[in-house]
Amino acid sequence: MKAKSHPDGAIDLSQGTPVDPTPDFIQRALQEASNAPGYPVTTGSAELRSAIASYCREVLGAQGDFDVLPVIGSKEFVAWLPFMLRSKRVLIPEIAYPTYRVGAIIAGSHVEEVGIEATMWNSQPGDLIWVNTPSNPTGRVHSVDEIKKAMEHRSVGAVVAVDECYFSFGDAKKPISTFSLTEGNNRNFLTVHSLSKRSNLAGYRGAFVAGDPDLISRLLEIRKHAGMMAPTPVQHAVSVALGDEAHVEKQAKLYAQRRRRLTPALARKGFRVDHSEAGLYIWCSNGAEDWAQVAWFADRGILVTPGNFYGKGGTSHIRIALTATDSKVDEAIERILAS
Ligand SMILES: Cc1ncc(COP(=O)(O)O)c(C=O)c1O
């Protein structure tokens, strides 16, 4: 309310929804496939399956035996995975995207918040463990060692699901896909990737999961009967988008430039930036309680997100999204520095 009453209007840096256009060649692909009288295939068209598998091998470094499955945006997958796997306990990062918790609640599972250090986790057979790198909201990138330690929990029968939906936006650190670290043993491992941010396709709902063929076949069986199929035009658009990295590199540069411009302005006003080495967000704090920091920005007509939205560990931080146009980011910088 306060931010909206600013004389020049509010600048929304609270939502991680892309604002840069969907590349023309992807829009054309969607149109090309718009004559779609028949039902789409849940497992994905041959074209899409091949595009996802190539992406996994060539860009993510996948080795060994794995299967792939399109999903209707990665949020849908995150929300329903615990239910589909009948997970009794779900381990989630202590500061995390809220849907990991929501999914566990839908499934009636016990939720346990865990820190980064995976040797401290107490997993049991049948548990589902979520890892998110780069993280929303912190922008933290897991090290190879951290990922490997998390993956060791598979040996007791836990499923490790790694959400890499910000994989393409490395900045100070370059994310490494978990797929490249399995040495071909993909048992009890799933990774989810999304085109929402990678290709500015959030409105299309295009994402995929890849990993353990047995787990994927269980998920496929449920998804077929539950009508969870990606629309045919979207399947084609995603296939085309996955074959191009040039547009992704361009977008990654835009986010990095926005981060580079905003960070010094925040520092001048006493905000310390933590992590934020990749992804779409700046995770920062001036030491006050999160709502007081939200109010500081609202006084300047800027909307940001309080850290408590991501768990109790976030109550002294705020999240600033880089999903605003360059001119809006410049305007935000002026407002931050003006007072
Ligand atoms: C960590 C994380 N996972 C998954 C999603 C869902 O993205 P989508 O459903 O657009 O693929 C988001 C969206 O912000 C996210 O931050």
Topology:
Elements: E1 11-12, H1 24-32, H2 46-58, E2 67-71, H3 74-85, E3 89-93, H4 99-107, E4 110-114, E5 128-132, H5 144-151, E6 159-163, E7 189-194, H6 195-198, E8 207-211, H7 213-226, H8 232-242, H9 246-268, E9 272-274, E10 281-285, H10 290-298, E11 302-303, E12 305-306, E13 318-321, H11 326-338
Parallel strand pairs: 1-11, 3-4, 3-5, 5-6, 6-7
Antiparallel strand pairs: 2-8, 7-8, 9-10, 10-13, 12-13
Helix pairs in contact: 1-8, 2-8, 3-4, 9-11
Bound molecules: pyridoxal-5'-phosphate.
Describe this protein's structure:
The protein has 339 residues and is of the alpha/beta class. The protein folds into two domains: 111 residues, Aspartate Aminotransferase, domain 1 (Alpha-Beta Complex), CATH 3.90.1150; 219 residues, Type I PLP-dependent aspartate aminotransferase-like (Major domain) (Aspartate Aminotransferase, domain 2, 3-Layer(aba) Sandwich), CATH 3.40.640. Helices cover 37% and strands 16% of the residues. The chain has eleven helices and 13 strands. Strands 2-8-7-6-5-3-4 form a seven-stranded mixed sheet, sandwiched between helices. Strands 9-10-13-12 form a four-stranded antiparallel sheet, with helices on one face. It has a two-stranded parallel sheet with strand order 1-11. Helix 1 runs antiparallel to helix 8. It is globular, with a radius of gyration of 20 Å. The model has no long low-confidence stretch (mean pLDDT 97). It binds pyridoxal-5'-phosphate. Pyridoxal-5'-phosphate binds next to helix 3.
